[in-house]
Design brief:
The protein is 15% helix and 23% strand. By secondary structure, the chain is α/β, with parallel strands linked by helices.
């Protein structure tokens, strides 16, 4: 089989709460790329991102849209750019894919961190993207902890994963997220292209992992850097995935009924009709000390009343007033467009 080479650029650069500053940093990286490169930036690169998301309240959504449009207009590479992104009814945590001569495409993070849930809307589907004739899957930050999402993307034909994160937490044990990246690559036999911010507390490396789980290239943590490496996508495969005992354990995916539509002028990131907003079902305890993106928000003033689930599996979601009524009690069925990925045991 002839090699299918992909030139990859990983940008480990800082992001601040200023769109213009971040835009200039992104342009500086892109000025050094070549046509057809695949470029990965960290989560929240364009908008800025931090554990405390209150600066989002004063962010101008039109400024973010204009910055995306400006980057898209003269782009010559395939760019995965992290940003908090405006929707019809608020904001989402997104990976914006910019490709030459195409309108921007957006993946919305479906599994939000606790500190995000009072400010951001979760996505409801796991799309794959055409990148220069190759298929890519995208995941953001804490989604590294949900391997079933990655397996679904691999089963849908993704030859590589673009992973954007903003992971800098002194409470996280060293090496855990690096191990996660290697596992996601090896168990799915797919390349993982990971970009994180540089930070003294950075606990997830920016690196490229092969389908065999080999670390092909890695940037030193804690300081800015640019990594360039060429990969051969013919190394991706499904030898292990094809041996899954789906007669015993199957992975079910429920796609949204409506698919998102994009418009270069307004970038509709939300496939739902205006005025509708779903909240993500979250565990009863709002803090997990072992999750670097999960914090006890009650101590930080971000607790969202009514969002919990009891120990019997009665999953609740906040209604218009955060009423905590069981989801089924609203209309007796799963909301349209809702994503549900589950493992089911077959008799």
């Amino acid at each position: 089989m002839a090699p299918v080479q992909l030139s990859v650029v990983i940008a480990q650069i800082p992001a601040v709460w200023d769109v213009d500053t971040n835009l200039a940093a992104v342009r500086e990286v892109l000025d050094g790329t070549h046509p057809g490169d695949v470029v990965i930036f960290p989560e929240g690169m364009l908008s800025g991102y931090a554990e405390d998301l209150t600066p989002l309240r004063t962010m101008d959504p039109d400024r973010v849209r204009a910055a995306v449009a400006a980057l898209s207009a003269d782009n010559r590479a395939h760019v995965f750019l992290g940003s908090l992104h405006p929707t019809a009814t608020g904001w989402c945590n997104a990976a914006v894919l910019l490709s030459p001569s195409r309108e921007p495409r957006i993946y919305r993070k479906i599994n939000l961190a606790v500190n995000e849930r009072a400010h951001l809307e979760p996505g409801d589907h796991l799309p794959t993207f055409d990148v220069g004739g190759q298929t890519a899957g995208v995941q953001l930050c804490r989604e590294i902890r949900f391997p079933e999402q990655w397996q679904h993307l691999a089963a849908e034909g993704a030859a590589f994963f673009a992973y954007l994160t903003n992971a800098a937490n002194p409470r996280e044990p060293a090496g855990v997220w690096r191990s996660h990246l290697i596992s996601r690559a090896a168990e799915n036999q797919r390349f993982v292209l990971a970009a994180n911010i540089p930070d003294p507390h950075q606990h997830c490396p920016s690196m490229i992992v092969s389908p065999r789980g080999e670390v092909l290239a890695e940037l030193p943590m804690g300081r800015p850097g640019i990594l360039r490496h060429t990969i051969d996508l013919t190394e991706s495969g499904s030898w292990y995935l094809d041996q899954r005992r789906q007669d015993v354990v199957g992975l079910a995916y429920t796609a949204p009924i409506t698919q998102p539509t994009w418009n270069i002028g307004i970038y509709k990131c939300d496939p739902e009709a205006p005025g509708r907003r779903e909240s993500q079902t979250i565990p009863e305890e709002p803090g997990d000390p072992h999750d670097p993106e999960t914090h006890d928000t009650r101590r930080r003033g971000h607790d969202s009343p009514g969002r919990r689930s009891d120990r019997r599996g009665d999953h609740r979601r906040a209604g218009p007033g955060g009423d905590g009524v069981p989801a089924a009690a609203h209309d007796g069925r799963q909301p349209a467009g809702r994503h549900r990925g589950t493992h089911r045991l077959r008799p």
